[in-house]
Amino acid sequence: MSDRDLTAIVCSGGGMRSAHGGGFLYALAKHMGITVPDVMVGSSGNAGNVMYFSSGQYEEGKRIWTEHLSAPQFISLLRFWRVMDIDYLVDTVCKSKEPLNIPKLNSSPIRWFVPIEEYDTGRTRYVSAADALDPFEVLRATTAVPFVFGKKVPVAGKRYIDGELGPVLQDHVTQVLREGARRILVLNDTSPWDAISRAIFKGYAAHMPQGMRDAIVRDVSTNVFAMKAPGAHVIAVAPQNLPASTLTRDQKKLQKTFDQGVQDALSIEKELRELFAVA
Questions:
Q1: Mean pLDDT, rounded, for 98-111
Q2: CA 99, 42, 10, 112 torsion-angle sign
Q3: Residue 231: pLDDT above 70?
């Protein structure tokens, strides 16, 4: 690879497993000085990680995972009609407790992208600062997980849901390849589909518009680790046994998952420094 090849970080979503992505990105910034990749993609649970990283708010991103997301206001299995309250995440945590710096995000040298899925067509839209949309509503849309949140988020006159339900890892990688990236770090916090979850989502999709139905069927039928990046140097990290699962609210488990992200990054520090050409 040439020194002039653009760098990228792809972070696929994984619900609360994305605490791992938060820790990994924290280690890049705070321990290795890797703060300005050319391109980033952050989906679903990792979208906030990418936004806070792009705005330079590393400590705020850490506190979100290790202090704020264990609150019952965010996740409660007793609140069956809204197990995960994304409105609390966006309106209370990201606007008030740890405010996302929108001017810094929009002026970041990083070309960041967040996928959102159009409910009525099944089309994936990769939103960036160039779209001039409200980042908070983009964040709300990409984390709007069906079943556990149950709301469709209006953005620019259309309805959107979870940015990881429809697109697959290859789509995210293809996006950064289109942007010219040839040195790519992939953080895949998505857990593999099992037979039960696959059947549930296919059943759920049966009541959706045709385009969304087709997108979900494609998603659940695709290996979550499958990707191709011709001509690129790729480092792929896909942790399998994280303390946190998709809906974990336990603060100790979230802290351990964040810490594992830090340690996973440090364990391959030499390779990461070479990928991003950082001494």
A1: 98
A2: negative
A3: yes
